[in-house]
Amino acid sequence: MDLEARTEPAALFPVKHPPGQFVEVDGQRLHILVRGSGPTIVLCGGLGSNWFDWQDTVNILGAEHRVVVIDRPGFGLSDPLPAGATPTVRGEADRIIGVLDALGATEPAVVAGHSIAGFYAEAVARLYPSRIRGVLLLDSSAESDPRRIIPAAVRVEAAHVIATVLSRTGLQKLVGPRARRVLNQATPPDGTPQETFDWVDDIYRRPTYLAAALMEDVVYPDLAAELNRIRQRFELDVPVTVAAAHTGRPSPWATRWIRTQRKLAEYLQADFTVVVPAHHHAMIDKPAEVAALIAELV
Known about the structure:
By secondary structure, the protein is an alpha/beta fold. It contains eleven helices and eight strands. Strands 1-2-4-3-5-6-7-8 form an eight-stranded mixed beta sheet, sandwiched between helices. Helix 2 crosses helix 3, helix 3 runs parallel beside helix 8 and helix 4 runs antiparallel to helix 7. The radius of gyration is 18 Å and the shape is globular.
């Protein structure tokens, strides 16, 4: 079962009551989901992720913790970045702290970063060590020597053009939810509420969502280079776990990926584990295992 359109378009069955709440951080309206009480855990999804990707992990952790899921600008129900702005590692780290401040969470929090959000989770622990007690890097992006052959301005302009064309021609509305099947091969458990599928229908058709995803993708090498600069200036003094996802099927690509994740763990002097069998979105395939790894850091 895949999170794609199942019956009618979401426009015909709009979800009237968005889950979670909205907070303003430095003038940016963000959508967050908060569940439970206790020690605070922040969950940050990868490229193009939305709050519902974490829903089963949230349900598990929320029994004993206060769990906060943040939709970055343009994703989920958060407003997009202002015109001309692009994501930065420091900006996203600051945003995490801003959300914690808005919630009055002054005690150190555990932060889990999936995929590209691993950059942000590591950075916030380096930049704000007194606010973070532990970090889980879940199948995190890992880039020691990012190559930036094409100038950033050209990449950003190309992303704007592509997003505009796909939206205005109707291609995004036509194939948006189904594109998730290609990008996210994780299998949600039986019993996933219809509301989740309705939200997929809605969000994956939003022009702001497409623009945000393309923008974060094209500035990836710049984000990786920025993180490396932060690493040179700020130490990492909190416990870190690097968790790689593996389907359990042998392949050269999987072998290289596990090796890359292990090297990341060695570089960060972090614990290393493999979540198996799981696709890249391991929090959907194996929510209990991912929740346990996060809880160990609390």
